[in-house]
Design brief:
19 helices; alpha+beta; 497 residues; Gyrase A, domain 2
Length: 497
């Protein structure tokens, strides 16, 4: 299917959904996670549930107190959401009346800030990064599952328990990672408009054991050399070659020549160039990450932990997935993820301080209560867009909490207690089962827990004492309406925070 046909299909799905949820004027917020379109609605009674479930492309419907969640599936939801947002913007008859300073208004401010910042940052390069992220996001469930299985196998091996089961768990946990290049190639071709199976076929060259017999300019290649970066580059080249063939190869020969050239040309370029270059780049990434944390871990952790929330706010954090995946392929874990997870800890601490400082704003306190469990598990967007970002100062103080937690984790890396996450996706408390380090499980878990606690306390203290002006406190505590409203901000796939 061509890109234009894809856009038409996505817009048709969005157009079918919109009237069944009450039309444009009933939409309070629009967001999506890895699989669901999440809508904040003004009037939930306007939703036509049976008709909505019957819309082609809708895989299910989940309703909770926070949002109306329409399950569209990974990949599809990221394409339907922009079309839905465009239809909502086109269909609104008039801007809503300005409500008092409640959770609803703060959520609207947060959504507006997100849209404005995203629009300002919609450069070709950043759009390309988001498309690269779309290649890896569908792989996250497998990365999580296999990472936990591999961690369980390692734990049993260390304990000497169930020795017959350990090899089986190792095979299950490592099988996906050994072939992840094929999945990356498949998804790359699918995302960039090529034939997915051809992208996977070219990327499979990277992990084929027989490449060890190939002499590339005097050096024999190694299976897996270049990793996911090599697979990504190979599949991108395959898409370009396929498009060229579709335009120039006669239709009678297209079925034979196009797939042959799409596999042959990028395959040769991969063997005699891309694998070597991508291998050097992958090795450089791993070496740089290790040296950065070994020599300046506290400072590096402070910078990364403090700047990660703005990346999440713009959705650019997904562009780090290839780096995480490369590190996991090389060393079995990514040392960056536990540090970046501290940004979520700072956000939780800031939200708790807002809760304490605004005892009379019942609607905002209800929002925090509903969003806090997700925040503890590392999903920070509900608190970002529903609480801290529209308030302004608490967003900055939340970043301070993330910086403090990141510095704590980085310091222990600098002291020789290096550790990381065996998979990407989970964060916050959900990251505990995926931690792996050189100092043993108990010490690794203790350091990570200490980082979370540092982030919580610093985010709380910074927000409590510096997160509000007197005027802000007077305005926000003046809300007399006990209207409990759940967070309307987006909840994404595990946020890599």
């Amino acid at each position: 299917m061509s890109p234009d046909e894809n856009r038409d299909k996505n817009r048709a799905t969005a157009a079918a959904i919109l009237p069944l949820v009450g039309g444009p004027d009933n939409i309070g917020s629009v967001a999506h996670c890895m699989t669901r379109l999440r809508l904040g609605l003004h009037d939930r009674t306007l939703v036509d549930v049976p008709a909505l479930r019957a819309v082609p492309g809708v895989l299910g419907l989940v309703e909770d107190e926070a949002t109306c969640q329409i399950v569209l599936g990974p990949g599809a939801v990221a394409r339907v959401t922009p079309a839905f947002e465009a239809l909502v913007a086109e269909g609104r008859t008039a801007p809503p009346a300005r409500p008092p300073v409640t959770a609803q208004e703060l959520a609207a401010r947060g959504a507006a800030l997100k849209d404005a910042r995203t629009a300002r940052n919609a450069t070709p390069f950043k759009r390309f990064l988001r498309r690269i992220a779309n290649v890896f996001v569908p792989l996250i469930p497998a990365l999580i599952g296999c990472g936990i299985v591999a961690g369980l196998g390692g734990l049993l091996a260390n304990l000497g328990a169930f020795p017959a089961l350990v090899p089986a768990l190792a095979a299950i946990g490592s099988g996906f990672m050994s072939l992840i290049a094929v999945f990356v190639g498949h998804n790359t071709a699918k995302e960039f408009g090529g034939t997915p199976v051809l992208g996977g076929a070219v990327a499979a060259v990277v992990v084929f054991p027989g490449v060890a017999k190939v002499d590339a300019f005097g050096q024999h290649l190694s299976p897996g050399q270049g990793g996911v970066l090599g697979a990504l580059a190979a599949a991108l080249l395959a898409v370009r070659v396929e498009r060229w063939c579709r335009r120039r190869v006669p239709q009678a020969l297209d079925v034979l020549l196009t797939p042959t050239l799409t596999v042959l040309v990028p395959g040769l370029v991969t063997l005699y160039g891309l694998m070597t270059v991508a291998g050097a780049l992958s090795t450089g990434i791993g070496t740089l990450a290790d040296r950065l944390l070994a020599t300046g871990g506290a400072v590096a952790g402070l910078v990364m932990g403090g700047l990660f929330l703005p990346l999440v706010m713009l959705g650019l954090h997904q562009a780090l997935i290839p780096l995480h995946t490369t590190l996991i392929q090389q060393s079995g874990h990514t040392v960056l993820l536990p540090i970046l997870a501290m940004a979520g800890a700072g956000q939780v601490g800031a939200a708790l301080a807002v809760y304490c400082r605004l005892p009379h704003n019942l609607s905002l306190r209800a929002t925090i209560r509903s969003a806090l469990p997700a925040g503890l598990l590392g999903v920070g967007e509900p608190l970002i867009y529903g609480v801290s970002l529209p308030l302004g100062r608490p967003f900055v103080t939340a970043c301070a909490g993330g910086a403090a937690g990141g510095a704590f984790i980085g310091l222990f890396n600098q002291l020789g207690m290096a550790f990381g996450a065996t998979a990407i996706g989970p964060s916050g408390w959900a990251l505990f089962p995926l931690l792996d380090g050189t100092a043993g499980p108990a010490a690794t878990l203790a350091v990570y827990a200490g980082g979370l606690l540092t982030g919580y306390l610093t985010g709380f203290a910074a927000t409590y004492f510096f997160g509000f002006t007197r005027r802000m406190l007077d305005e926000l505590n003046a809300d007399p309406q006990p209207t409990p409203t759940a967070h309307p901000g987006p909840t994404t796939e595990p946020a890599l925070t």
